[in-house]
Amino acid sequence: MKAPLTMARGFSLPELLTVTAIAAVLLGVAVPDLAALLRAQQLRAATNDLFGAIGLARAQAIARNEQVIVLPRDAGGADWRQGWTVFADRDGDGLPGPGDDILAVHEALAAGFGADFSFTSPAAPYYIAYNGAGRSCSTSGAARWGTLSLFHGGAVRRIKINMLGRARACNPARDTNCDGAEAPG
């Protein structure tokens, strides 16, 4: 006696094509959102890196009781997109050199970033310096405070430094008192 034949179970070609088409449409809708998510994460990471460098400069200035500077890495000291250097300015010239202690170096930011600097001293170089008391200052010692803004993919993050030298990061889309430069058009 033979066992009855059973039909093989599986999907037909039209069913597989339908599922593949639906998956392709869903993926096509999700890809732009993933790109925006990636840009937002890059902006948060760059802001956190710069915020950390500022915190390091302040902590080291207090610990060493000497001036510590965060300076953009471009030749004119004006473009934060090129990265930054944190150093103890032992020779007092405002530039990292052989006699200075280099505490941290950050490489250039990814393509597509913008940056703006608005401090009490508007002229380049656009440095952030701390004295031994942990106060934000100019290289001459005068108080210096303001806002550093980073832009990427239509979003903005700001780092605000108050007169006492305390820094805070903020998002103008959701935080109050987070004013600063407008995103480049």
Automatic annotation (TrEMBL):
<keyword id="KW-1003">Cell membrane</keyword>
<keyword id="KW-0488">Methylation</keyword>
<dbReference type="InterPro" id="IPR045584">
    <property type="entry name" value="Pilin-like"/>
</dbReference>
<keyword id="KW-0997">Cell inner membrane</keyword>
<dbReference type="InterPro" id="IPR012902">
    <property type="entry name" value="N_methyl_site"/>
</dbReference>
<dbReference type="InterPro" id="IPR022346">
    <property type="entry name" value="T2SS_GspH"/>
</dbReference>
<feature type="domain" description="General secretion pathway GspH">
    <location>
        <begin position="46"/>
        <end position="165"/>
    </location>
</feature>
<protein>
    <recommendedName>
        <fullName>Type II secretion system protein H</fullName>
    </recommendedName>
</protein>
<comment type="similarity">
    <text>Belongs to the GSP H family.</text>
</comment>
<keyword id="KW-1133">Transmembrane helix</keyword>
<keyword id="KW-0472">Membrane</keyword>
<dbReference type="Pfam" id="PF12019">
    <property type="entry name" value="GspH"/>
</dbReference>
<keyword id="KW-0812">Transmembrane</keyword>
